[in-house]
Design a protein that fits this description.
The chain is mainly α and about 230 residues long. It is about 80% helix and about 0% strand. The protein has two domains: about 55 residues, Arc Repressor Mutant, subunit A (Orthogonal Bundle), CATH 1.10.10; about 150 residues, Tetracycline Repressor, domain 2. It contains ten helices and no strands. The longest helix is centred in the first third of the chain and has 31 residues. The N terminus is likely disordered.
């Protein structure tokens, strides 16, 4: 009996255990995050299989093991979940690049590592297809276009800042002054080449894509091809 009494009085004395309401809120947050994660994973698969416009919310929800109501509890629309996927992809890309750069100390070594990363990164075929289709969709729908444009500018600014921090010690004379514009060019060339490879992989091999991306990177940053 004393053991039971101690357990009951301990939180009152030390205040170390969260209250029941806090524990319940934490569990609810964990469930919400898990549901959201499953819906995002399902959306990525459904978009890749059916395309953005043909994809149905019911199929995304069912693939994740939920109802349409569960979808709307987490996302407002099909557009909304696409933007969530895009932001997730950007976070993963930035984390991957940061990890790559942190393996090196000198600015030149980091730039060479970034070149290698860039030349090899254009392999996410599903994302390229989804992204290209959604861009065409956004051009026909003003609200989606405005939202995509705003997100793209934030993405380019983030990558541009990363480039600025990397290039500052090198004092390179770049053909394009705006780092965000450089980021946009790097991304656009990579997407375009990967799309062409998907159309005709026999003419444009994966090795061709890597070499051309490396040459394009060199032309901007004045590096000798490696």
């Amino acid at each position: 009996m004393r053991a039971v009494s101690i357990r009951r009085s301990h939180p009152k004395k030390n205040g170390t255990r969260p209250s029941a309401s806090i524990r319940s809120a934490l569990r609810q947050t964990e469930r919400t995050e898990a549901t959201r994660g499953k819906l995002l994973a399902a959306a990525k698969q459904i978009f890749a299989k059916d395309g953005f416009e043909a994809a149905r919310l019911e199929d995304i929800a069912a693939s994740a093991g939920y109802t349409r109501g569960a979808f709307y509890s987490n996302f407002e629309s099909k557009e909304d979940i696409f933007f969530a996927l895009l932001e997730e992809w950007v976070r993963e890309r930035i984390e991957s690049i940061t990890t790559t750069l942190n393996r090196h100390t000198g600015a030149l070594e980091q730039l060479a590592a970034l070149r290698k990363h860039y030349a090899e990164v254009a392999r996410d075929r599903r994302f390229v297809l989804i992204s290209m289709e959604f861009k065409l969709y956004a051009l026909r729908h003003p609200e989606a276009h405005a939202r995509l444009q705003s997100l793209h500018r934030r993405i380019r600014a983030s990558f541009g800042k990363l480039l600025s921090d990397l290039l500052r010690p090198l004092r390179l004379a770049l053909p394009i002054e705006n780092p965000a514009a450089i980021s946009a060019c790097l991304g656009s060339v990579a997407e375009g080449l990967l799309l062409e490879r998907l159309v005709d992989p026999k003419t444009l091999t994966e090795g061709d894509v890597r070499r051309v991306l490396g040459l394009f990177f060199d032309s901007i940053f004045r590096l000798e091809a490696s």
